[in-house]
Structures are given as structure tokens and as C-alpha cells.
Amino acid sequence: MSHEMIKPYSLKEGDQVALVSPVNLPPRQYRADQFIMDYLRNKGFGAVNFIASADTEKKRSSTFNEAIISGSKALLPISGNRYADDIFHRIDYESFARMRPIFCTFSAASALLLALHFRSNVGVFYGPHISFIHEEAMFRENTYTIASFWNMLTRRVGITESAESSPVDHLAFGWDGYGLVLKNIFQSGAWLDKDTIPFVSCKNNQTSPLIHGRLLPSFLQSLEKALASGIEVDFSDRIVLVESDEIGFERAFSILKKIKTEASLTEAAAIVLASFVTYKQNPPNEKLIRELSDRDNIRQFIDDVKRLTDDNLPIIYGFPMGHLKYKLTIPMGVEATLNSETGDITLLESPFEEEETEKNVTRMV
Q1: Is-cis flag, bond preceding 128, omega within 30?
Q2: What does the DSSP assignment read for 278-338?
């Protein structure tokens, strides 16, 4: 894919935002379409509904294609727990490239994210779903995650103080005159709680700990599914960030081995093993909890991945992304540097195209 990536425009007050369902439709009892629409309108956006009328391949794809050409500045999926590989051949990639809407999803649905990115050459975003961000959500994200989501998509600074504020809200990134740093909050263990991922840095042989590349965040199994579905994922010079839930390190490693046989994984700039978690309840998977939290297991996993990549790639473990409490919204395809010692990522360019009204304003990113 060409490095001349097509960029969306950032969201601003008055822009139209579409709710979409290209991946699946949640059960009716978990739907909150009107609450989400009201939430978006209260934030100053023009909300429109492009949720499919039926959970079929044809309906989901056709309604999604309608949303693409609707003029909406952003397409926000209401769910994402399927790969959506059944609609890859039905998506209007040319219109997606021409309209360049913001598209943000994660989990299994990041297979669709990869399809859109590599087939349309448009920058997309790996982050939480709007269904868990609106004020009436049954399981609402914390203020850190919500602030990170809106700060990224609207390119602004600041969070809303509330009684629910977490100890790391002040680290929710914001745009400023010095660029944008995606802070790795797991580097320091002073504030950490049970939802924290251990951080393991990488000591580079290079004189500088900074690794340059283009960001490629994904759910691990979605990378596997995308490749199996014919998506040409190019790992060359990419800072690859992967996460997963409900699988152990042995299964994760087997997926990485398969990915290596099918694509240019060893040509990546670095691999960030962001988060591997389990939140299964009734009953919880105690064995998996112990495995994923054991530092010896983590270090063995890192060593296995190093050997898989011929000991040529920087490998770090632990980053706020994925199926965990504290997560950032991360742009795909953007040029950045990864600090292999701190785990911080600094964007070297904006994920957004400048509007005509912004072109005379000097920006660092």
C-alpha cells in the first residue's frame, strides 16, 4: 500500500455522524440506538441511523455502503464481535476512499478495519464502540477511555471532570503544540489496579530507543482472519500492536506463527504485545487468569516471539489498548515513533486531513 495514505477529516460541532452495523446486530435487549443518537446530538453532532434492518450479509453490507456515501463525517459501529469477512467482497472501497469517513472499531471487527485500510488506503482507528461510551450504556467505559476516544476523533484537548474520574485521567492524551504522545500508562506501577497489564520494555541494541514506523493496531485473531480472507496486510516498517482476550499465550503464539508463514511479519519495525486478558464470568477462568498474570509466562511469551522473528525485532509487552479497562483510540497507518524503553508512542503526523479553514494554521501534527 502506498505511503500516501488518504486521511479523514476530524470531527467538529455540526458534523453528521452515522450509526452503522456492518459486522452484526446485537440482541434487541442490548440495543440503545436512540440513547446513542441523543448522546451524539447533545455533543453537537447531527446523528443519523444507518443500522441494518436485518442481520444478514446483504442487509448489513448494503446499508453500510449507503452510510459510506451519505456524507457522514464518521461511521460509528454499534458492535464488533464478529469478523465481518462475509461482507468484504461487498464493500464499496472506492466510495470509502472518495468519502474518507472516520471509521473506528476494535475486537474481532478489526478484520473489517484491516480490509478498509489496506483496500482503500484510508486511515482508520482502533478504539471502543460508541455503544459503551454514551451516558446510558449498561457497561460504560471509564472517563480515561472516553476522553481518549473523543480527543482523538475531534482533535482536541481536555477531559470532563466527574465523580467517576480515574487516577490516570490526567494522562488521557490531548493535542498540543508539541505533538501527540500516546502515553503508556502501564510503565509505572504506582497507581495500578487489577485491570493493569504488566509492562516489559525492550533494550534496543541501537543507540536510540526510538523506533520509527507506521502504526498497525489489531485484534490478533483478526489479523489471522484478514489474511485468510485475502486481505493483503503489509507489515513492512509497521509498528504492530496486537491484543486479544480469552486465549492463552500458547494459542496466541500459534496464531503469530501462522501469520508469519502467510505475510511479511518479520519485516515489521516492532511488535507491541499490547494486552492479553480474560474477563469471563460465571465462572471466571481462574487458570487463564493465573497464566496471563504470571510474569514468568509473560517473559517466556516474549522470548518465543523474539525467536519467531529471528531476534531481529524489538518486542515490548503491555500497552493501553484492547479488551481492558484503560484503552486508547489508536490511528492506523500514521507515521510514529515507539520508545522501546518507556512504551510511549509519539505521532509524527496528524491522522487527519486539514480542512481548508485550517491550512493557514501551523500545526506540529
Answers
A1: no
A2: ----SS--HHHHHHHH-HHHHHHHHHHHHHHTTT-S-EEE--S-SSSSS---EEES-EEEE
Strands 335-339 and 210-219: antiparallel
Cα 56 versus chain centre, distance = 25
Element spanning 249, H or E: helix 249-262
16-140 under CATH 3.40.50.300, yes or no: no
pTM across the whole model: 0.93
Coil, strand or helix at 176: strand
Backbone φ/ψ region at 209: left (φ over 0), alpha (ψ -120 to 50), beta: alpha
Give the count of beta carbons closer than 10 Å to the beta carbon of residue 235: 19
Name the stretches of the chain with pLDDT < 50: 159-163, 359-365
Query: Half-sphere exposure (CA, 13 Å, Cβ side) for 122?
Result: 25
In the CATH scheme, what architecture does the domain 180-347 have? Answer: 3-Layer(bba) Sandwich (3.50)
For residue range 107-121, list pLDDT tens digits in order: 999 999 999 999 999
Domain locations in the chain?
16-140, 180-347
